[in-house]
Design a protein that fits this description.
This protein is 25% helix and 30% strand. Helix 9 packs across helix 10. It starts with 8 loop residues before the first helix and ends in a 14-residue tail after the last helix.
């Protein structure tokens, strides 16, 4: 088939019927369209475009009751069951904050939105809200469950459906991933500023002011602030979290949404290149073969060191972050730090062993 010209919606629907075993994302990639264009092709066939205004949509999601929240990037998918209570708006960043569904939302990336209803003989009718960015890539999805409130679903659609829906969707070119960016002549400034941080959120401003990004700063700072690890360290960490019962915070996201799991990891199940967490109310699916660069990172805060494990793909995009959990019920950070210290570095030494051999920051620059 000639794919040099854009496929029209009718052709997309016919091809989808002929390839109904493919996942939406895989189908879209195979036929050189975006996932948003695939969904849009079904407008009038179980799909309703709605206004992509998160301040209009997200406060109403709590009315749906129990749902499943899904966020993904190319290498990792996170799914959490819960409600959307606790929505907090914001021009730059909004959030949903409750024990089960914990999201950071960046409104400028929410460009198109659809209510999707799909029926099958085996599964009945499945309903979801799906949000996409300007390039047509999924930002976030909300899947209804058997206990969800269908009256609230119908009310949301009636109020937010677009008046002139179209099954054709124009998308913008994807933004190329930003490679690691650092300023070697500002290494000392980076380490000094890093040591003065009192909150992890200050790191973004620090690197921005120095014209660096996250991965570039890690490479430049070196141990003990940022310690390189082997790609296998992520799987080793997940195994250790499961075995020790250590509670953590796992961050997975894309430019438009970050979703967070807080708590233990109980059931790991490896399937080919995928490592899967299959816990009640929490699933995570991670492509281990996409892990290219992994770092153990130490950032000072008012409440002590925040030690994270951070994984990047071959193009420098962050895949996931893991931190130790601390709250009023307990402090798991020390147990987490012990797990990280034992993880393999690229030369198979542990991070703790590798740190003295690296180029450390001057003593006055390092948080004690």
């Amino acid at each position: 088939m000639d794919l040099s010209s854009p496929l029209d919606p009718q052709t997309i629907r016919q091809l989808r019927q002929d390839h109904d075993t493919l996942r939406d994302r895989d189908f879209a990639a195979q036929f050189q369209i975006t996932e948003a264009q695939l969904v849009a092709a079904y407008v009038g066939h179980g799909v309703t475009p709605i206004a992509a205004d998160i301040d209009a949509i997200f406060p109403r999601l709590a009315d749906l009751g129990e749902v499943m929240a899904l966020t993904r990037n190319d290498a990792c998918v996170i799914e959490k069951v819960g409600t959307y209570s606790g929505y907090h708006p914001g021009n730059h960043a909004a959030m949903v904050l409750n024990p089960d569904i914990d999201l950071r939302l960046f409104p400028r990336h929410f460009i198109s939105a659809f209510a999707v209803e799909r029926s099958s003989d085996k599964g009945g009718t499945r309903r979801s809200l799906q949000f996409f960015d300007a390039a047509g890539d999924a930002v976030h999805k909300v899947h209804l469950r058997p206990a969800s409130d269908l009256a609230a679903w119908e009310s949301l659609l009636a109020d937010l459906a677009l008046k002139d829906p179209s099954d054709h969707l124009e998308v913008a070119p994807r933004q190329a991933p930003e490679p690691a960016r650092a300023e070697p002549d500002k290494a000392v400034q980076l380490r000094i500023g890093w040591a003065k941080m009192t909150d992890t959120h200050q790191f973004r401003k620090l690197t921005g002011d120095l014209k660096m990004n996250r991965l570039g700063a890690y490479r430049l700072a070196g141990a003990p602030l940022a310690c390189p690890l082997a790609p296998s360290a992520v799987d080793a960490a997940l195994q250790a979290i499961q075995d020790t019962g250590t509670e953590v915070m796992i961050f997975v996201g894309n430019p438009g949404c970050i979703q967070i799991h807080t708590g233990p990891v109980k059931n790991l199940r490896r399937m080919g290149p995928w490592q899967n967490i299959l816990d009640p109310g929490f699933d995570l699916h991670l492509r281990l073969d996409h892990l290219t660069e992994v770092w153990a990172v130490n950032k000072p805060t008012k409440r002590g060191a925040a030690v994270s494990l951070e994984a990047f793909d071959a193009e420098g995009r962050i895949i996931l972050q893991i931190f130790g959990r601390r709250d009023e019920t307990g402090d798991h950070r020390r147990a987490w730090e012990e797990i990280v210290a034992a993880l393999p570095a690229p030369d198979e030494a542990t991070c703790a062993q590798a740190a003295p051999a690296a180029q450390p920051a001057p003593a006055a620059e390092v948080t004690q």
